[in-house]
Amino acid sequence: MPDFHIRYGAEVAAARRAGRPVVALESTIISHGLPRPDNLRVARDIEQAVRSTGAVPATIGMVAGELVVGLDDPQLTTLAGTDDVTKLSVRDLAVAAASGVDGATTVAATSAVAAAAGIEVFATGGLGGVHREAAQTFDESADLTTLARAPIAVVCAGVKSILDVGATLERLETLGVAVLGYRTRRFPGFFVTDSGFDLDWSVDSPEQVATILAAQRVHNLHGAGLIVANPLPIDEQLDPVLHDRVLHEGLAMLERDGVTGKAVTPFLLAHFHSATQGASLAVNIRIILRNARLAGQIAMAAVRPT
Ligand code: PSU
Ligand code: MN
Questions:
Q1: How confident is the model at residue 162 (pLDDT cuts 50, 70, 90)?
Q2: Whose CA is nearest to atom 11 of ligand 1?
Q3: Ligand 2 centroid – CA 262 distance (Å)
Q4: What is the mean pLDDT of the chain?
Q5: 87 is catalytic
Q6: How far apart are CA 68 and CA 113, in angstroms?
């Protein structure tokens, strides 16, 4: 019987021993969210963005059935460059471990593993959510239900407009997941600064998020995660006209090609990257790097005595 315990990378293991702050990072954006060859460079840059704040990055994934918190560079290279890397949501983890496969973890799977490893802060690009047509298809990302039971702060730029943003916010309310706008009261729309939806709460500093995490930990009432929604500055967003055109094309292509289930999100992301000739990719990378820095600052604030 293999040993199924989580394996820690050397840098993360040392940080845990020293009580230094760690930021979780997902691997599905690397394997399925960003095109090659930029994906590997970006994966390394995200880790550097976390290190620049003084925190330690822990990219999470599965290598030959082993759950790794803190992938090393050869492991990152494998997940970024190999065709048969499986997209693993939280329900897939045990099956994939028993099968000994290489896999990339989604926000759902990464949050679950990170919380099990005692990590409090996680940076990603965009969260999964409720898909359009979900009333018929029931297609809602397990990112939402997992965050209802993983006590972790997820720094993201909201959800992409490929989803039903209003329904996603409603589900987060039902599931007990708080959404904080970072220096805004509007929910960001990933490629665009403003999704058009209001938020109840706004925070202005990493310290404020750390204080909220402390309150949640001490209250210990419902064990849910929370979302820190960090919008792109308006002058850095994707041109909204281009955005709307590409979005409608992509949704029509989904229908035409009969794409469903876990293939939907990677399909739409790839369409955006090719149809905007790389403009959406540049925006996507900026978003992730900004979120990684903010997550690092939050993790640093969370270990400082106040
Ligand atoms: N949204 C993005 N980029 C991504 C993803 C979502 O803007 O790369 C990835 C994340 O890993 C997320 C997953 O957890 O897609 C959601 O997939 P699904 O909708 O199949 O749950
Ligand atoms: Mn889905």
A1: confident
A2: 106
A3: 5
A4: 96
A5: no
A6: 9
